Amino acid sequence: MSTSVKQATWAIDPIHSTIRFDAKYLLISTVSGWFREFEGTVVSGQDGFCNSEINLTIYVNALTTGNDERDNHLRSPDFFDAKQYPMIQFRSTTVSMQEKNIAVTGILTVKGVEHPFSFTANFLGMCADPMGNTKAGFDMDTVLNRKDFNITWNQLFDKNGLLLSDEVKVHCDLQLLKLS
User: CA Rg, the chain, in Å?
Assistant: First the structure.
């Protein structure tokens, strides 16, 4: 007799989710940007998010920092090269629960470069929204080195200073909508 494991499929609710990145400019202040368009799914067991399969796609052309000139530069070959690499993608390889946190390991692909990527997401809870849909909330903070993804453009200023940090902080607030 075989037993089947029931799975739940969740979609990222883009209206109630944000993906932000922060980098140091002149190495003294922070410039923030957001990706306004992204989509993703999580396939989980009915008993929680352990052993889930996570897939995320972020559309590079939808990045914004609030400055058109800077946004166009970030979309150029100097940075993300949005024409040649229109998407940033993540797919999980392992997902495990650690109390209320979820440890996630996978492959992050930026600008055609695949790189192992691990982070811890905070599970914030689950509830029904006013329309009766089941929602789950997560947030996470991590740090990336942009050079790992062949994003190397920079400039020297003031004889020995760098214009931009190599370290980029990423913050996500994600709300999932249970589809099945």
Answer: 18
Predicted TM-score (pTM) of this structure: 0.91
| Cα→Cα distances 109→1, 80, 114, 120, Å | 41, 11, 4, 18
The tens-digit pLDDT sequence of the chain (180 residues) is: 445 568 999 999 999 999 999 999 887 889 999 999 999 999 998 668 989 999 999 999 999 999 999 999 999 999 999 999 999 999 999 999 888 899 999 999 999 999 999 999 999 999 999 999 999 999 999 999 999 999 988 887 776 677 788 999 999 999 999 998
**DSSP structure class, residue 163:** S
Distance CA 130, CA 45 (A): 25
Place of tokens 């200073």: 161
